[in-house]
Amino acid sequence: MYRTHTCGELRLEHNGKKVTLAGWVQRIRKFGSITFVDLRDRYGITQLLLGESLNQQLDQQPLGREFVIQVSGTVTERTNKNPNIPTGDIEITVSDFAILNGAKTPPFTVQDDTDGGDELRMKYRYLDLRRNIVKQNLELRYRVNRSARNFLDSRGFMDIETPFLIKSTPEGARDFVVPSRMNPNEFYALPQSPQTFKQLLMVSGYDRYYQIVKCFRDEDLRADRQPEFTQIDCEMSFVEQEDILNNFEEMLKHIFVEIKGITFNEPFPRMTWDDAMEFYGNDKPDIRFEMKLVNLSETVKGNGFKVFDEAELVVAICAKGCAEYTRKQLDELTEWVKRPQIGMNGLIYARYGTDGTIKSSVDKFFDEGKLKTWAEKCQAEPGDLILVLAGKEERTRKAMSELRLEMGERLGLRDKNVFKPLWVIDFPLFEYAEEENRWVARHHPFTAPKPEHIEWMNDLSKYADIKANAYDIVLNGTEVGGGSIRIFQRDLQEKMFAALGMTPEEANHKFGFLLGAFEYGAPPHGGIAFGFDRLCSLLGGSETIRDFIAFPKNNSGRDVMMDAPSTIDQSQLKELNISLVQ
């Protein structure tokens, strides 16, 4: 064997033991006739002492960083101990060493405080993966994976694989498509999720299914989105919404105990979609802090201030203890809301002084008495700052939601070590797509309406009021999972497709296999899918899921290490019966 122990294994109790280690050279320090080497593997670092007797061999076979070597020697107690590493009490007095493979000088330092930028590290990802901080992220990912699997196995769930080469059924994000050589001019699609397959498994009688599975969506990328990502995908038969929520709340609690040592003794809070939009401005509220949105429209209109009088919505938040914000800080906030990605024309503010007086940026239109009405509505106290936005309803609500999060960040209220999970329920079944001039499914077209709203599916004027039997699990302002009770009757599923503008022929072409299955005894069923990469990044305290994926794509969807996507040979294109248009 190349080694008797790993580089993270040896301790003082091994003192005097003859051992053989193998790994990568992390660092070399030469002091006269002796040389110290830090040897690294996946498990840790062990210091090596190469004495005077090995100097001639070192001269003939000099070591370099990232060389792969094998050493034999004796475990000895270190004179200068290193309390920062588990092996810091010992070192190996080397009797013999061999270079297994040399290494070029790395393009960046392979250590936690590296000098390599993102693109460089992604190009040499196999080197980046050697860094301890990246290794810890992948270890956390594995532990979350194992914890979820153990829980689901204990609850009788069965891990069943589903195909990656499927039929294209565009709905939501764009499909990645794969040409078929054996079926000229026809294409597979890569699954955006195993949605229809897991429903078919319910029809097949496999009442508790799960997969930790790759999914593919051709969409614009950001910190929490990759073209290929991983879901914890689950489905259950003979259940109602309450069964799903209770079961998977227990799974999350189980993961938190095992991964973070955090116990949630109380049930996760629940919030309707309507309340989330009203009080937080979005459907994934960060409830680590209050600062709820307050609708001031009726309170402030009719005072001659055109900005308020012509606005569809006037909304405020109260920033506790911020009345002493300087004019410079307020000007910075004003410029912040004017950025294109926020899209507001300006910001109004009112300072509630510790002496009980209130001054605002619109004192010309609102005397102190009226400003105190603002304060009462916002539950502001002396020392607080009220921030107000006004304009078109949808844009203004979204902008205030972003400003609330920004203020939470500036005030240190979004602690990564504090975890606040939340269920959001009672979503709308439909939303209206102005550009397409039609109703679309808010979740997906297999989501069941609330039982009491099924009859409204026949009335177009009621579409905006129909609630879905759907739910999201939100953690610290990030949606980490979502699901629904599914439609399981053919006639209701056909009504849903019709509501989305599909003709019977189109619905049968795209989903005839599912509609047909519903005629052979489909049970009531529902499920949920967790964004596995997002969950890992939150548990690891990172803002980007790339840190928890072994070989991620960059923001352009490219693998810069393999240089993919890339062109293919003309012969391959000919075999696939494809010609390219420049």
Automatic annotation (TrEMBL):
It catalyses: tRNA(Asp) + L-aspartate + ATP = L-aspartyl-tRNA(Asp) + AMP + diphosphate. Residues 195-198 are annotated as: Aspartate. Its EC number is 6.1.1.12. InterPro entries: Aa-tRNA-synt_II, aa-tRNA-synth_II, aa-tRNA-synth_II/BPL/LPL, Asp-tRNA-ligase_1, Asp-tRNA-ligase_1_N, Asp/Asn-tRNA-synth_IIb, AspRS_core, GAD-like_sf. GO terms for molecular function: aspartate-tRNA ligase activity; ATP binding; nucleic acid binding. GO terms for biological process: aspartyl-tRNA aminoacylation. Its main location: cytoplasm. GO terms for cellular component: cytoplasm. Pfam families: GAD, tRNA-synt_2, tRNA_anti-codon. Transmembrane segments: none annotated. Keywords: Aminoacyl-tRNA synthetase, ATP-binding, Cytoplasm, Ligase, Nucleotide-binding, Protein biosynthesis. It is found in: Cytoplasm. Belongs to the class-II aminoacyl-tRNA synthetase family. Type 1 subfamily. This is Aspartate--tRNA ligase. It comes from Chitinophaga tropicalis. The gene is aspS.
